[in-house]
Amino acid sequence: MRGDLTRRFTQIAINENVIVEASRLAETYALRGYDAVQLAAAIEANKERVSNGLSLLVLVSADTELNDAAVAEGFSVEDPNKHP
Question: Which of 14, 39, 45, 17 is nearest to 26 (CA)?
């Protein structure tokens, strides 16, 4: 299981840059705290992917407010509630 974590997922440190971005997102889109942190971490992960020549992230979330903010920030979004 631990091997899957390192091979299949990118861990993003919740550092000052992520917190500052989360604050901006929370204020801009009226997001709840952890939703803002999640989107800020996704933005950071997306930057890493793009700088390494990888495809853009797709955010998977069932939260309407988070999804709307993610789309406004340029993400593609998949809502699992829309897939029976």
Answer: 39
CB 42 within 8 A of CB 63: no
Domains in the chain, number: 1
Question: Are residues 30 and 47 in contact, defined by beta-carbon separation less than 8 angstroms?
Answer: no
Q: pLDDT, tens digit, for every residue of 66-81? A: 999 999 999 999 999 9
Full residue range of the structural domain in which residue 75 is found: 2-82
State what percent of residues in the chain have pLDDT above 70.
93
Average pLDDT, the chain: 92
What burial class does residue 31 get, using C-beta atoms within 10 Å of its C-beta: 0-12 exposed, 13-18 middle, 19+ buried?
A: buried
